[in-house]
Amino acid sequence: MRVIISAGGTGGHIYPALAIIDKIKEKEPNSEFLYIGTHNRMEKDIVPKKGIPYKSIEIYGFNRKHLLKNFNVLKCLIKAKKDVRKIIKDFNPDVVIGVGGYVTYPVITEAKKMGYKTFIHEQNSIPGKANAYMEKYADIIGVSFESSKKYFKTNKVEFTGNPCSENSLKEKAASKKEFGLSDNKKLVLFVMGSLGSSKVNDYLFKLVPKFKDKDYEVVIVTGENLYKDIDLKNIPKNVFVFPYIDNLVRLMKKTDVIVSRAGASTLSELTTLNLPSILVPSPYVANNHQYINAMDFKENGACLVIEEKDLNDELVLKDIDLLLNDEEVREKMKESLEKLSVKDSATKIYNLLKELVGR
Predict the structure, then answer these.
(1) Which of 210, 217, 283, 290 shows the greatest Cβ crowding within 10 Å of its Cβ?
(2) How far apart are CA 307 and CA 295, in angstroms?
(3) Mean pLDDT, range 31-40, rounded to an integer
(4) Tell me, what's the pLDDT at 195?
């Protein structure tokens, strides 16, 4: 299979795209790929390191606060469409895939106009603006949440889950000793995404002294850029602080409760691992999609939710104790997570692509 795939801006788009590539490689080792991303965001560094051919285009999201700045955005978009047409024509793919981010807009729309088969995937419960607009340009749309179907007008939508789920299952669990942790104590993991959150970090390190008398251990992942601002003096012996943990899912497999943001990839890992969670959705994302993701989970009994504005010591400690110590609550949450999980998501997507290419 010859595949052009595009996704950009955040790990929540990039890593699902890479998971799709991995599955196609597993099923069809002789497949060829070309990744189209931006010239200035994280995919330009991540993807080439994986040995995947990469083409960049200059494109920017629309600025809704300063409309005059969009003249340059439109100028870049016109050029990007022209560049994309040449890239697609030269590669001549069997299928073109978009996995989120504004970079996918010219890729999918031009591919469809040129007569190529197209597939898009939405990771969040509510579609991003690019995917919502590209609905009419997609032959098939994959979604991570069953509830997402209602946001699309077409009947071309398939509930696939998030393709990162299969990679989570494959990973080997970490040794707790690798992180200085005890095998005989329960573990609570705090992580606010790969970049962290300065506001939540500030709150957490005011809360930290209250963990001193707890019989569980705590790992806090601050985010690399924010680690230097943390005062590590007087940290209790049962609290461990890291700027970043590579392949975090390995430690998640040893975790009893996680307190995290509500990004789509994180949620796919929680359902795959049946990991009880307290979600603190980021209020700083487009369409407030993390809050909607989290409430979708909560309505299904799959998590507890605390909004960032409502963070307080009593509530956080109470919810942690509830999930650690009330076996009935834990088991009901795990059952709910199991019902939401799609453990073969990447395989489902591969089968849809295979069917699409064969039409």
Answers:
(1) 290
(2) 11
(3) 97
(4) 63
